[in-house]
Design brief:
- By secondary structure, the chain is of the alpha+beta class.
- Helix content is about 35%, strand content about 15%.
- The chain contains five helices and four strands; from the N terminus they run ββαβαβααα.
- A two-stranded antiparallel ribbon has the order 1-2. It has a two-stranded parallel sheet with strand order 3-4.
- A hairpin with a 7-residue loop joins β1 and β2.
- The protein starts with 11 loop residues before the first strand and ends in a 12-residue tail after the last helix.
Length: about 150
């Protein structure tokens, strides 16, 4: 049995994992909302030249009015492609999520601050390993996004 504090805590993460291996992410405490997504997308567009093709799941935030309105004003710089419902195995980002949640070699965080610090550290380490990120696209279900 693993001793615990009895206190639950968590955080959220949004990420972009291109098949070229350039991981971008944001770790945050608040809820995932349209303004959070739009801030991430603005930052993503500033860091990428050319058009961005983003595969997203069916989360309501991805379909929101603010997001649709913002996308319409981007002059074709970004396009969202929606995965079919209840098919997380088709989302390359889920492989990063599995990697992040894997307990191998990591200690259980004692509080939210430690958890967020550990998560950012793990993601920064992954950013420095583009070959590891590219390997996510070797998974059979997400190979469609590798080309």
């Amino acid at each position: 049995m693993i001793p615990g504090t009895g206190q639950r805590f968590g955080c959220n993460m949004i990420s972009s994992i291109p098949n070229r291996g350039t991981l971008r992410f944001k770790v945050f405490q608040k809820r995932f909302t349209q303004p959070v997504l739009l801030a991430f997308l603005r930052r993503l567009l500033r860091s990428v030249k050319g058009k961005v093709f983003l595969i997203v799941d069916g989360h309501p935030v991805h379909h929101g009015k603010m997001v649709r309105r913002w996308l319409a004003g981007q002059e074709g710089r970004i396009a969202l492609f929606f995965l079919p419902g209840y098919r997380p195995e088709l989302n390359p980002d889920e492989l990063l999520n599995q990697d992040v949640k894997s307990p191998a070699g990591r200690q259980r965080p004692k509080d939210k601050v430690q958890m967020m610090k550990s998560l950012r550290s793990h993601l920064r380490s992954t950013q420095k390993q583009p070959a590891k990120v590219r390997r996510y696209f070797h998974e059979e279900h997400v190979a469609y996004a590798a080309a």
